[in-house]
Design brief:
- Helix content is 36%, strand content 23%.
- It has helices at 87-100, 105-120, 135-147, 171-185, 206-219, 231-240, 247-252, 273-281, 290-297, 303-308, 327-347, 360-372, 405-415; strands spanning 5-16, 19-31, 34-39, 50-61, 63-69, 124-130, 151-155, 157-158, 192-194, 197-198, 223-227, 263-267, 284-288, 312-315, 389-392, 421-426, 429-430.
- Strands 3-2-1-4-15-16-17 form a seven-stranded mixed sheet. A four-stranded parallel sheet has the order 5-6-7-9.
- Strand 2 (19-31) and strand 3 (34-39) form a beta hairpin.
- The protein binds fe (iii) ion (FE).
């Protein structure tokens, strides 16, 4: 079977949020696309399997980017320093005009080929992406992701109010196109699936939300959206929905808040106590986007609190509100954001305050097993997990001293880039 083979290298993963497992120069056995086990000496019964010998390279689980705007990749690195980060300008100058280009399918093809080629050379194996409101371009993105071997959820975005000309649907069109897209894609690919995607409450009328809720139930597909990213956004939602107590209720009233189907809510920076209670007790994954939150408004979500309260937390690039596709960079930024948050909350000028930040172990866990749990047994090398693995050659950044495996991982989280990604396997298939 071509999905049964062995990788040799230094194997690293996080079985839980507080621990790394390290297996120096060992054998990782993949059997029929699943992790079979890790061995210091390869058992006799696997000796007939093909062995990819990566020497002492690091082998880590593939990473899950749980919040990415695929059509925004073109303007990555731009728009984060305009007019004191006035977000309406960011939308009108960059996000909306750029997303509008995806009505042109030949442009969409070029842009999505570039995005997915670049993604292939990162540590990311799975993505949960917003496409644009264009059905055909969304279907094309799903096709390209599938052809390149990714596992993904992709959303045709819904927007029937508060957008700009050229990037606005009528209510009827929005729902008809969504249904057509669901029909075309919900059973089309083995590993690339649709996800219902109201952009956020200000972009969607009550009629669209109700229609999406019905479609979500009929086709039994998960939901993703944005939640409590900014204070101005929360005030706007309150204005549009005066009867709600907190932002999340605007989704909950349409059963889109982790009651009927699994739900991903990006950001959750300014969630209230009531909202946090539901985030922690519902079938909701919080997609923490530290790079985007720091870039956009210098803020950071209370991730440690969410994790300690039992919420399901994962990480996202939020490209191109964030300026990177690298989940290694996002791990690094999650730790940095946690320090920033601690400095302006618990520390608050006290030089003797006890340090309490997101550790590397936990941040690595969020990027792998935390996001992977949305798919089930994904993001770890425990027996029976889907075989998503990335091989990293750290010789480019290594020094001339012996370093522990922990130090090698820490250094790669900080310093690695696409030059160091040597091989990649997704659902047991070698894709790079
Ligand atoms: Fe976003």
């Amino acid at each position: 079977m071509d999905k049964s083979y062995v990788l040799k290298g230094t194997i690293v993963y996080t079985p839980d949020v507080d621990h790394f497992a390290f297996h120096e120069e060992s054998y990782l056995v993949c059997e029929d696309g699943k992790v079979e086990g890790i061995y210091k000496e390869l058992p006799e019964k696997f000796k007939s399997y093909y062995i990819y010998d990566y020497g002492n390279n690091l082998i880590i689980p593939g990473m899950c980017d749980m919040h990415l705007h695929a059509p925004q990749y073109g303007f990555r690195g731009m728009g984060q320093n305009i007019e004191n980060s006035d977000w309406s300008s960011w939308f009108s100058r960059y996000a909306f005009p750029d997303e509008g280009r995806y009505s042109d399918i030949s442009y969409a093809k070029k842009a999505y080929e570039r995005l997915t080629d670049d993604l292939l050379h990162t540590t990311t194996t799975r993505v949960v992406a917003f496409a644009s409101l264009h059905r055909k371009a969304t279907e094309l993105l799903m096709q390209i992701l599938s052809e390149k071997g990714f596992a993904a959820y992709v959303g045709k975005v819904n927007m029937d109010r508060n957008s700009m000309e050229g990037l606005l649907e009528s209510t009827e069109e929005s729902l008809n196109e969504t249904e057509e897209w669901l029909k075309n894609t919900h059973n089309k690919y083995e590993h690339v699936k649709p996800i219902i995607t109201p952009r956020y409450i200000p972009s969607c009328t009550n009629e669209v939300m109700q229609g999406l809720s019905d479609l979500m139930k009929e086709y039994s597909v998960p939901v993703q959206s944005h939640l409590s990213e900014g204070l101005d956004e929360i005030a706007w939602v309150k204005e549009l929905e005066p009867d709600i107590d907190f932002y999340g209720q605007a989704y909950d009233q349409y059963d889109m808040f982790g009651t009927v189907v699994p739900t991903i809510m990006a950001h959750c920076v300014f969630s209230t106590e009531k909202e946090i209670e539901l985030l922690c007790n519902r079938n909701i994954w919080i997609a923490h986007c530290p790079n985007s939150n720091l870039q956009g408004s210098g803020t950071a979500a209370p991730v440690l609190r969410y994790m300690r309260a039992g919420a399901k937390v994962c990480l996202g690039t939020d490209a191109s509100g964030g300026n990177t596709l690298s989940m290694m960079r996002i791990i690094s930024d999650a730790m940095l954001a946690s320090k920033v948050r601690w400095a302006y909350t618990e520390r608050n000028g006290d030089p003797n305050a006890t340090r309490d930040f997101l550790p590397l172990t936990s941040a690595f866990y969020l990027a792998t097993k935390g996001g992977g749990s949305f798919w089930g047994n994904v993001g770890s090398f425990e027996k029976g997990y889907e075989f998503d693995a990335v091989v990293l050659d750290d010789s480019r950044v290594a020094d001339f001293c012996n370093r522990t495996t922990y130090e090698r991982v820490e250094r790669m989280v900080s310093l690695s880039d696409d030059r160091d990604v040597k091989a990649k396997f997704i659902c047991g298939k070698k894709v790079l």
